[in-house]
Amino acid sequence: MTVMATTRSENGSQRHWTFLTNHAHVLLAIARNPTARLRDVADEVGVTERAAQAIVADLEAEGYLQRTRVGRRNEYTVNPAGRFRHPAEAYQSVGALLALFTDPVDPEPTAEPSPS
Asked: Domain HTH marR-type spans what residues (predicted)?
């Protein structure tokens, strides 16, 4: 389930937005499941299958992903050394983003027992 922030514009209409782009969401979905069908990636991200295909093509063309045919399916390899495209973040690799959103972490840190 995708949760988006909602704001009201000056004319009263609602605008939905997220901090990450659809390209980032697709890259993260594939990093989590490199053998996922694009149909499933599209459902997870909340885009059409055609949009997911276009995004994967963009990511492949720029070297963020490599596609390998395995039987009747595709398997993707993510390049964590790829750099962010915006000049403000170009010094960072996408590996840092992948680690942030794909590494298993304890969702609720255990509180230290209080002394009695």
From this structure: 22-70
